[in-house]
Amino acid sequence: IRRADGNIVEIQRADGSWLAAWDRRTQEGGIVSLRVDITRLMQTEIALRESRAQAASAHARLDDAIESLSNPFMLWDAEERLVVFNQAAVDPLSLNAPPEAETLRVGVQLEDSVRRFVFAGHVPAAVGREEEYVQERLAEIRRGDGRLIEVQLADGRWLVMRDRRMKDGGIVSL
Q1: At residue 101, does pLDDT exceed 70?
Q2: What is the dihedral of CA 135, 90, 82, 166, to 10 degrees?
Q3: Beta carbons within 8 Å of 58's beta carbon, 6+ residues apart
Q4: Mean pLDDT in residue range 25-52
Q5: Over the chain, what is the mean pLDDT?
Q6: What CA–CA distances, in Å, run from 77 to 18, 103, 165?
Q7: Read out DSSP for 4-52?
C-alpha cells in the first residue's frame, strides 16, 4: 500500500497482527516508508470497544429492570444525591407536580427531596412539626437497615418503604 500523502494507514495482516504504515514522497521523488507494529494498541482498542458495548448493554438492561419494577425505586449515592429512580417513584405520589416540582430529579439531595415532599403537605402526621418530621425521616433513611416504614399520605393512601445502605455508602429506597 502506497499513499504518498502522508496519511497513516492501519493494516491488519493475515496472522492477526496490525501495522501502521506511513508513506511520504521525498523532494527527489522517492518514497520513504515507515511500518510500526501496532498490534497491542489495536487489541487494546478492540477490547475497549467491546467493553464499552457490554457496559452499555448492561446499563440498558439495568435501566429496563429498574423501570419495570411496579414499586418505587430510588438509588442515592454516598453523598446522598439521587442517581436513578423509576417512574413508579414519580407517578403514584405525583412527586414532580407543583408545588413540590423537582422533588425527584437526578442529582437532587436526599434532604432536599424529603423536605420538599413534607413541606408540600403530603404527610398529615408532619403538619405543625415539619422540620422534626423531616429529621426523623432522614434518620430512618440513613439508618438503612431495611426496616419497614409506613407513611400515610394526605390523600389517604399509604406509602410503604424500605431503605437499605449499600457497601459504598449509598442508599437504595424501595
Answers
A1: no
A2: 80
A3: none
A4: 92
A5: 89
A6: 43, 16, 10
A7: TB---EEEE-TTS-EEEEEEEE-TTS-EEEEEEE-HHHHHHHHHHHHHH
